[in-house]
Amino acid sequence: MTTEPSAYHQRVAGEKRAAILAAATRLFLDSGYDGTSLAKIAEAAGVSKATLFKQFPTKAALFDAIVTASWRSGDEDEAAHPPAGDPRAGLTAIGRRYAALLTRPGMADLFRIVIAELHRFPELAQTQFNRGKMPYFASVRRYLEAEREAGTVLLDDADLAATQFLGMISNYVFWPRMLLAQWAPERSATDHVVDEAVLMMLARYAAPPAR
C-alpha cells in the first residue's frame, strides 16, 4: 500500500499553495507586511489556518516562498541555460527570458512591497536579493564565464558584464513600471530592446574572428 500522495491530492495542494501566495501578495501590497496576519491570508485564500500554517508557519517563510516563486522562470527550459559557443543566440535567449520574467504578473508588486516596507523590515529586501535577484544574476554570470572559456568573448569582469546586460533590459522593460502603473511595452518593442542589448554586448566583448 503506497503512502505517496495521489496526483489529485498533489494538484489540490498545488492549487492551495498558489492561492495562498496570490492572496498574501495582494494583502501585503494593500495592507503592508506588518498589517497582514496569516489568519487574514488564510481567509483571503479560502483555506483553513491549519492548511496555511502547515505550509508556511511564519510570514517570513511565506514571503520567502513568494520571492522564490516570482523569480522561478522554468529552469527545466533549455533556453534557461543556453550552451556556450554562440553568444548572440545565447544572450538573446537569456535576454528574452529576463524580459518575460520581469513582466510576469506580480513581479512589480513584489518590488513595491519590498520598497514600501524597507524602513521597517529590511530583511524583506535581503530575502528578495538573496533568494531572487542574486541566483538569477549568478546564472547569467556563469553563462558569460562559459562563453569566455569557449573563447567567444573577451572579458575580465563577468559580474560587470552581467550587470550591464541585465541593466540595459530592465531599465526599459521594468523600472518605469515602478512609477508608471500603465507601463506595458509591446512585445515587439521589448524584443527590439533585447536585440539592441545583445548587439551592444557583442560590440564590447565578442572575440575577434580567428584568422
Overview of the structural elements:
There is one protein chain. With 211 residues, this protein is mostly helical. Helix content is 68%, strand content 0%. It is elongated. The mean pLDDT is 89.
In short:
With about 210 residues, the protein is mainly α. It contains 9 helices and no strands.
Radius of gyration from the CA trace? Answer: 20 Å
Indicate the percent of residues in helices.
55-70%
Averaged pLDDT, please? 89
Query: What structural category arises from helix and sheet content?
Result: mainly alpha
Major sheet details: none
Distance linking N and C termini: 67 Å
- Helix-strand pattern, N to C? HHHHHHHHH
Count of alpha and pi helical runs: 9
The portion of residues forming beta strands comes to under 5%
Q: Give the overall shape.
A: elongated
Stretches with pLDDT under 50, minimum 5 residues:
none
What is the count of β-strands?
0
What layout of secondary structure does this protein have?
Layout: H1 7-31, H2 38-45, H3 49-55, H4 59-71, H5 87-102, H6 107-116, H7 122-150, H8 158-173, H9 187-205
Helix pairs in contact: 1-2, 1-4, 1-6, 2-3, 4-7, 5-8, 5-9, 7-8, 8-9
Features:
211 residues; single chain; mainly alpha
